[in-house]
Amino acid sequence: MRLPLTEFIIDKALAPKACLLLSHGAGAGANSEFMQQLAKQLTLNNIEVWRFNFTYMQRFIASGKRSLPDKIPQLLQQFCAAIDCCDTSLPKFVAGKSMGGRVASMLPADINILAAFAFGYPFHPPKKQSWRTEHFNQLPRPLFIMQGERDAFGNSDELADKQWPGVTLHWLNDGDHDFKPRVKTGLTQAELIAQTAQFCSRMIDEILLAVK
Q1: Mean pLDDT across the stretch 19-38?
Q2: Which part of the chain is the KANL3/Tex30 alpha/beta hydrolase-like domain (predicted)?
């Protein structure tokens, strides 16, 4: 299935150095408040953002009737279709919030993408130990994960002794799955989202320098 270009929400940067295809999480679409804030911060760091909805989310927006996300193989096909439709000469990167980050990390090796980013990776369902990292030892490209320290889908204590080749974990102080810290920290969700965009920008800079 191909997604027409009109389905993209494109956030332009003044001096774009890269294009980031950004997919959403399981419960909220490409135009959610979190996705809007993240896209804005990424553009401030000279990253052009192309947001899109998976098919099941498009159906919900059109009909108002919720449904479960499609299975991973279908989501992968839809992400690949979005990449094909992304008409830009900028270096391409992929990313996603939660479920979208998981799908981005699983894209096949023959896709012309330089790296993947996950904003709150769903390492396991909350309070369950069914880990979703079986593919981490065979990643075809670098994977950068920005994770809140208190994330119920994988917190800093659970992941303290875990390492995978090609995976870089960047921890966000006291953040939850949506990068919201507790009030007592003096931090805000907006600050953690800004830190996330800055980290993403630094990693893109390093990759672009290496491929020159």
Answers
A1: 94
A2: 17-204
